[in-house]
Amino acid sequence: MTGADAPPADAPLILAGREGAKRVVTALDAAAHGLGLRVGMPVAKAQALVAGLAICDADPEGDAEALERLALWILQRFSPVVASDPPDGIVIDSTGSDHLLGGEAAMLDALIGRLAMSGVAARAAVADTWGAAHALARFASGAAVITEPGHGAPVLAPLPIEALRLPRAMPAELRVLGFETVSDLLAQPRAPLVLRFGPEPGRRLDEALGRSAEPIEPIRPAELIETRRVFAEPISAAETIARYIGKLVETLCSNLEQEGLGARRLDLVCQRVDNTAQVVRVGTARPVRDVKRLTRLLCDKIETLDPGYGIEGLSLCAVLAEPLKPRQSATTLLDEAEPDISDLIDTLANRVGERAIHRAAPVASDVPERSVCRVPALSPDTGAGWPDAWPRPARLLLRPEPVETIALLPDHPPVSFTWRGVRRRVARADGPERVFGEWWKRDAEMIAVRDYFRVEDDAGERFWLYRAGDGEDPATGSHRWFIHGIFG
Amino acid sequence: MRPQPAIAELRARIEKIEGQRRRVQSVLPFGVAEVDARLPGGGLALGALHEIAGGGNGVTDGAAAALFAAGIAARTRGRVLWCLTQADIFAPALDQAGLKPDRVYFLEARDQTGVLACMEEGLRHGGLGAVVGEVAHLSMKASRRLMLAAEGTGTVGIAVRRWRRQADSMDFGQPTAAATRWRVSALPSTPLPVPGVGRHRWLVELIRARAGESADFELEACNAQTGRLAIPAELADRPAPANDRRRRAAG
Question: What SS3 class is residue A251?
Fold first, then answer.
């Protein structure tokens, strides 16, 4: 709701839905929670407890649709196997795709960060099973939880029994009998539990612990371009898989051509005979419809597949496709056309990760470590460079290292310095080059100053030293010396 | 060097025997007559692997070696792939050695094997001007693979050898398939009439060159426009060093 319909921002807000004939609270915000309201409470009681309560009607269908949309967005950006986990969750199989985002931790950071930017507060967990991840995301402390592979029961044991995805009334019944946490249920023999509560608690426990399989049925929107091939006999040899990948890519490319699209992200899902899926995801920096190139990218990844007892079905799907228009290639007779290397960049990016391949671009900053930023490898050329009035070192130390020096204040270069246990006499020096702190970045840099010197020792080795502070006023820096780089 | 027709003819015959798979070899001259005269073909062979290491402290920081490589890469046509594991290279310095930031793709691999694999991929592609990789250990097998990949496309491969510890640099004595092997160490800079540091100077040692002889040069570092080296002014006019000083060492 927006505009005049929107409830006042400062009033506690609840959503009211129907449960049978009763109107109950189905969701509430932090302010309402703080005032003692809870989910499942009758609306009349909530209104009696809190005056000035803002009440909106719940819209379960709308929520489910929004969840589907969010799942699709995650499918295109994060992982090939994604499904919505109603009412409030999304389950992602990250196997085989987290490497594109730099590992599990980086993936969760990116996911939560991007959701936060669009105004969604999210909690996420990575675990071995759907059940465990569901429980940890909702009941563990911290917004992002990552467990070790093969974590087993100890991770789940301290969580409350609500974490187990049991039918709505069951946790309350279990609590009456004294079951508080998952560990209480784990310690209990199964037979009496089944007699009293049916098969559900046992099944959910097994699923959470990975004793029984729970496949994720990924969402596949109708407009997605997908091709599929099922085998009468399971295949497992790398050459065979490569041959069929080639055939799938051909079909996919002709489908893409009909739509006038090029693939930005491809998912290859291999259905194994033991009903698990192996997934390969490859990305390209620009839309591509070239059969050879896409086949190459996918075939590079075959070695990451574990065919197990054999693969009985392959499906290839372009989860992210963008319009690809034909372009004129040769421009003039005189200029030799610059060779296209976007295919090389794609191959390398799929091997080492998208972030590991980049270009450097200048930033208007005098502070050396801030003067370079990373830009995507295939971003357009700018022709910009750094002002080359002052020589810069070939190697910039990641962190400036303190050195012991003998130097005259305020603006003489050091006479000698000791770095990593070696004392060097300074034969020649150039400087100072004064770099002022960037007051618009941090308050501490308001008056901070660094004085850089290029020094050369007796043997001819050249170093970049700086003194924190201007040599007179202690407020500008500690007046200690650091080495920041090495010239060639 | 005296012309030796018999040797030249023999070389031509050997090349004929070897040459089916090789493309026409062209060279990339340094533009410094003294250096080019010492290199077979009058320059650095294109479509080959070259090795560059630092001397002294340069063994671990590889600063001069990286700039020397940048100077070579700057003079090639096309873009440059720079593979490394330690991301401490400072792009403004490469710019000052003539290698513009738009031309360089940096690739951070997880380990040595990754660097070598990505270098090979880059060399095989053929669209790049040069591929530079910072590696510590370079085995005969790995260097041979890179050499073959480079021969197929004509891209220059440069292995900047850089070790974690000073002691590990003993490895540089091991034979590899590289066409040339260089060592670049820092020398005191060009003296100025006023206090300050002049243009940087290097001692560039050509330790090994396939079908050529080894040599030492004292050179001024790459300039900002084209990455060209230069012979220091006061050395340009002195008599050429004795030719056969190192012949014995080269065998």
Answer: helix
Q: Cα-flanking dihedrals φ and ψ of residue A4, to 5°?
A: -70, -25
A130 shares a domain with A27: no
Within a domain: residue A341?
no
Task: Delineate the domains of chain B, giving CATH numbers in brackets.
Answer: 29-188+201-250 (3.40.50.300)
Comparing CB atoms, the residue among B90, B97, B121 nearest residue A485 is B90
Contact: A488, B224; criterion CB under 8 Å: no
Residues A86 and A205 in one domain: yes
A300-345 confidence digits (pLDDT tens): 888 888 888 899 999 998 888 888 877 766 666 666 667 788 889 9
Res B250: pLDDT: 41
Using DSSP's 3-state secondary structure scheme, residue B86 falls into coil
Greatest distance between any 2 Cα atoms in chain A: 91
> Distances in Å between the alpha carbon of B26 and those of B22, B44, B45?
11, 9, 6
Beta carbons of A488 and B189 less than 8 Å apart = no
pLDDT one-digit tens code per residue, A357-377: 999 999 988 888 999 999 988
Closest CA relative to residue A148, chosen from A124, A127, A125? A127
Q: Rounded to whole angstroms, what are the CA distances from A424 to A33, A402, B60, B168? A: 66, 14, 17, 23
User: What local confidence, expressed as pLDDT, does residue B245 receive?
Assistant: 46
Choosing from A297, A323, A349, the residue where a domain stops is A323
pLDDT recorded at residue B138: 92
In what helix (H) or strand (E) does residue A79 lie, and over which residues does it extend? none
Q: Which residue of A341, A375, A430 is the best one to mutate when testing the B interface, meaning the one whose CB has the most B CBs within 10 A?
A: A341
**Residue range A54-87, pLDDT digits in tens:** 888 888 888 888 888 888 888 888 887 888 887 7
Four-point Cα dihedral A163, A165, A170, A174, nearest 10: -30
Work out the angle between the directed axes of helices A190-197 and A200-209 (0-180°, nearest 10): 130
Task: Note whether A98 and A187 are same-domain residues.
Answer: yes
What value of ipTM does the predicted structure carry? 0.83
Q: Are residues A92 and A169 in the same domain?
A: yes
B27 at the A interface (CB within 8 A)? Answer: no
> In terms of Cα–Cα distance, which of B91, B166, B84 is closest to A359?
B91
- Spell out the residues 6+ positions from residue A297 whose beta carbon is closer than 8 angstroms to its own: A266, A282, A284, A346, A347, A350
* Residue contact B118–A352, C-beta within 8 A: yes
Q: Provide the residue range defining the domain that includes A300.
A: 225-323
Using the beta-carbon criterion (under 8 Å), do A393 and B110 form an inter-chain contact? no
A59, A65, A68, A70: CA torsion to nearest 10: -70
User: What DSSP string describes A156-223?
Assistant: TTTSBGGGG---TTHHHHHHHTT--BHHHHHTS-HHHHHHHH-SHHHHHHHHHHTSS---------TT
Which segments of A221-318 does DSSP mark as H helices, in order?
A: 238-259, 291-299
A35 shares a domain with A134: no
Residue A264 lies in a domain: yes
B61 interfaces chain A, CB cutoff of 8 Å: yes
Helix extents (H) in A300-454: 342-352
B102 touching A, CB under 8 A?
Answer: yes
Cα separation of the two ends of chain B: 17
Dist. CA A6–CA A204, nearest whole Å? 40
Q: Final residue of a domain: which of A182, A209, A236?
A: A209
Q: Which amino acid is at A15?
A: L
- Please give the average per-residue pLDDT across B117-132, as a whole number: 92
Per-position b or e across A213-239, b if 16+ CB within 10 A of its CB: eeeeebbeeeebbbbeeeeeeebeeee
In a domain, A387, yes or no: no
| Nearest-CB residue to B90 (from A377, A388, A393) | A393
